[in-house]
Amino acid sequence: MIIYSVEISIAKKVQAKWLKWMRETHIPDVMRTNMFVKFSFYKKLHTSNSETYIIEYETDDMKKYQKYESDFAIKLKKEHETKFTNQFSAKRSLFIKKII
């Protein structure tokens, strides 16, 4: 499995609006691309001026991830940026899931 991990720190003042939008719009839109088989959504435990969440999308094929990046990611990232301009920071990582 390939895991595409997105870590987002979101300003507390827009957190409720962001969570609602992520649950109802953004994550469903990502999953509708059919490039991922499942996702997990986590909240980091800490306190600061923002809250940090991690969304992990799993795919069974690197080519599907590459297709997501080439065909869907720009539009989806732009929607997020437009809706929450200057309210978040994001880090993206790619992992291979191995079971020992």
Describe how the helices and strands are arranged.
Elements: E1 2-11, H1 15-32, E2 38-43, E3 50-59, H2 62-83, E4 88-96
Q: Which tags fit this structure?
A:
4-stranded antiparallel beta sheet, alpha+beta, 2 helices, 100 residues
Give a short overview.
With 100 residues, this protein is of the alpha+beta class. The chain has helices spanning 15-32, 62-83, and strands spanning 2-11, 38-43, 50-59, 88-96. Strand 2 (38-43) and strand 3 (50-59) form a beta hairpin.
Notes on the structure:
- The chain is built from two helices and four strands; from the N terminus they run βαββαβ.
- The protein has 100 residues and is an alpha+beta fold.
- It has a four-stranded antiparallel beta sheet with strand order 2-3-1-4, covered by helices on one side.
- The radius of gyration is 14 Å and the shape is globular.
- The two termini are 13 Å apart.
DSSP summary, beta strand count: 4
Number of helical regions = 2
Calculate the terminal CA-CA distance, rounded to whole Å: 13 Å
Show unreliable segments.
none
Class derived from helix and strand content: alpha+beta
Approximately how much helix is present in the residues? 40-55%
On the 0 to 100 scale, the average pLDDT is 94
Give, in spatial order, the strands making up the sheet with the most strands.
Answer: 2-3-1-4
Order of helices and strands: EHEEHE
What is the 3D shape? globular
Task: Please summarize the sheet with the most strands.
Answer: 4 strands, antiparallel
Instruction: Give the strand content.
Output: 35-45%
Estimated radius of gyration: 14 Å
